[in-house]
Amino acid sequence: MRILGVDPGLRRTGFGVIESDGVRLRYVASGTIVVPADSDLSARLKVILDNLRQVVRDTSPDFAAVEKVFVNTNPHSTLLLGQARGAALCALADSSLSVHEYTALQIKKSVVGTGRAAKTQVQAMVQHLLALNGAPAADAADALACAICHAHIAPLAERLRDNGVLAASSRRPTRLRGGRFS
Amino acid sequence: MRILGVDPGLRRTGFGVIESDGVRLRYVASGTIVVPADSDLSARLKVILDNLRQVVRDTSPDFAAVEKVFVNTNPHSTLLLGQARGAALCALADSSLSVHEYTALQIKKSVVGTGRAAKTQVQAMVQHLLALNGAPAADAADALACAICHAHIAPLAERLRDNGVLAASSRRPTRLRGGRFS
């Protein structure tokens, strides 16, 4: 399976694509979408939306993985991050990708072996696990780490679901409460 | 000009479309996108994205107006609202609409005449200004109020820009810092 990991941010959104056959991991692509700071907000979100859809078209992943956000900054930053994250998730869902979310703890444990790993340790382990010549940039490394986490966790979750330990999720249909249209 | 106002929320996103000829306002449509609570986050954001794009296709607005968020809730709510807002702004930008943002103060002053207006006062004034038979539901009323605010403020801003009092915004092109693609 081919996995796209995303590390959303309003200034810089990292992405990383890997392949996993259940045993080995293979690096496919990674990079950073750098969003110009002087546009208005909707234009900046559109940059994330458009470029991430382009990444999906270029790399054809089967799954997407995004880090769950731990809110520890000020409310203004949280709102901005939320909007960037909303744009990233929209790009993935708009490309009909199934999106999986993992906490920072899950990702660090999965990649480094401990939840207390520093950023540089994550970068070094991503480089090692994917047999890269150099450590990827921070945003791309976080995105690749998220994809690696999915590669490690997804087969296990699949087995638990098959055995009836994890329940399949149910979904209600959408209602659009309309509106008098002229 | 035809204006689409949006009041984004992860559970309920209100929308309202009006027309303005510079003097009179005319009601076109309004409603609420009700998002099912039991889906995963990316599926919920996709509901907002898809339905709001549908509203744009159905009503063909020239401009979009969205309320600027005043952050006064807990960080978790702020993050959820941010993501819903991100999805709404993506839908508008994805439809090539120019998006204008107004503070709650601007909207209330523009619609009711005072920034300290209660929600019910906004609903009553929206009903009055658009000559509706009944008051619209809260989310739709907020969205219509936002559209009315743009109808009132936009011609003034246009005149100020024409007179060189307001500067036109500049935009840098986007850079996509790529990645090594295999």
UniProtKB/TrEMBL annotation, chains A, B:
Instruction: Name any cofactors this protein relies on.
Output: Mg(2+)
What's a GO cellular component annotated to this UniProt protein?
Holliday junction resolvase complex
Q: Where in the cell is it found?
A: Cytoplasm
Q: Does the keyword DNA-binding apply?
A: yes
Q: Which GO terms describe its biological process?
A: DNA recombination; DNA repair
> What reaction does this catalyse?
Endonucleolytic cleavage at a junction such as a reciprocal single-stranded crossover between two homologous DNA duplexes (Holliday junction)
Q: Record's superkingdom?
A: Bacteria
Cofactor note as given? Binds 2 Mg(2+) ion per subunit.
Task: Tell me which Pfam families the record gives.
Answer: RuvC
One annotated GO molecular function: magnesium ion binding
Q: Where is the active site?
A: 7, 67, 139
EC code: 3.1.21.10
Keywords of the record, alphabetical order, are: Cytoplasm, DNA damage, DNA recombination, DNA repair, DNA-binding, Endonuclease, Hydrolase, Magnesium, Metal-binding, Nuclease
Do you know which SUPFAM superfamilies this protein is assigned to? Ribonuclease H-like
Binding-site residues, Mg(2+) 2: 67
Q: Which of this chain's residues are annotated to bind Mg(2+) 1?
A: 7, 139
CDD domains according to UniProt: RuvC
Query: Which InterPro entries did the record assign?
Result: RNaseH-like_sf, RNaseH_sf, X-over_junc_endoDNase_Mg_BS, X-over_junc_endoDNase_RuvC
* Function text: The RuvA-RuvB-RuvC complex processes Holliday junction (HJ) DNA during genetic recombination and DNA repair. Endonuclease that resolves HJ intermediates. Cleaves cruciform DNA by making single-stranded nicks across the HJ at symmetrical positions within the homologous arms, yielding a 5'-phosphate and a 3'-hydroxyl group; requires a central core of homology in the junction. The consensus cleavage sequence is 5'-(A/T)TT(C/G)-3'. Cleavage occurs on the 3'-side of the TT dinucleotide at the point of strand exchange.
SUBUNIT field: Homodimer which binds Holliday junction (HJ) DNA. The HJ becomes 2-fold symmetrical on binding to RuvC with unstacked arms; it has a different conformation from HJ DNA in complex with RuvA. In the full resolvosome a probable DNA-RuvA(4)-RuvB(12)-RuvC(2) complex forms which resolves the HJ.
What is stated as this protein's family in its record?
Belongs to the RuvC family.
Mind telling me which HAMAP family this protein's record contains? RuvC (MF_00034)
Protein name per the record: Crossover junction endodeoxyribonuclease RuvC
Q: Which organism is it from?
A: Pigmentiphaga humi
Gene name in the database record: ruvC
